[in-house]
Amino acid sequence: MAAALHAGESAASHVEQSVGPGQNEHAQPHAWHNMREMQSRKRKLLGSVVRHGKAGSFATLPQGCGNVTAVVLFLSPVPTFYGIWKNKTVEQYSAVPYLATLLNCMMWLLYGLPAVTLHNMLIITINVIGITIELHYIALFLAYSVGAARRRVLLILVAEVAFVAAVAALVLNLAHTHTHRSMVVGILCIFFEAGMYAAPLSVMIRNDRYHSPDLLS
Predict the structure, then answer these.
(1) Are 214 and 90 in contact (CB under 8 A)?
(2) How far apart are CA 108 and CA 133, in angstroms?
(3) For all residues of the chain together, what is the average pLDDT?
(4) Environment class of residue 101 by beta-carbon count within 10 Å: exposed (0-12), middle (13-18) or buried (19+)?
C-alpha cells in the first residue's frame, strides 16, 4: 500500500514538473486533469488503507485470544503423557482424542492455506502448533504401547493423512474458486471439530468398562 501511495505522489509530481510556463497552452488542461486524477486516486487509496487497517486490527484481536485458548487446550493432556512417560506404559489410555484433534488441526490447516482461503495466517499458525503438539502425544503413545494397540494407532494415523491429502487434491482440482473451496473444506472442518469434542466419549465408554476415572485425564 505504501508503495502505491508513493507511486501516486511521484506521478503527480512528474505531471506538475512537465507543465512549464513555456509549453503549449493546449497541453496544460490535459496535464492538470491527469494530476487531479492522480490526486483523487491517492486519496481513495489512502482511505482504503485506513479502513482496512482498522477492520484488520479489530478482527485480529479475538482471533489472537482464540489462539491462546486453543494452545491451552492443546497442552491440557501434558500431565497424562508425563505419567505415560514416567511409567513407560500407556496402561488403558486411549489415543482416540489425540488422533481426532490431529485430524481436526490438519483440516483447519488446509482451510487456512492461500489456495483455499486468503489472509488466514492466524489459522495456519495455531493449527501448525496443534499438529506439532498432537504428533508428540501420538509419538509417545506409540513408543509405550504394544501389539494391536500400536498397530491400530498407526493405521488410523496413516488413514487420516491419506484422507486429508485426498480432500486437498479433490478440492483444489474440482473446485475452481476460493468461495467453493472454502465452503467445502469449511463444512468438513466443522464436522471434524464436532468429532474432536465428541472423541472423549470413547474414553468414557472405556472408563465405564474398566471403572477407572484416571482414563478421563
Answers:
(1) no
(2) 15
(3) 78
(4) buried
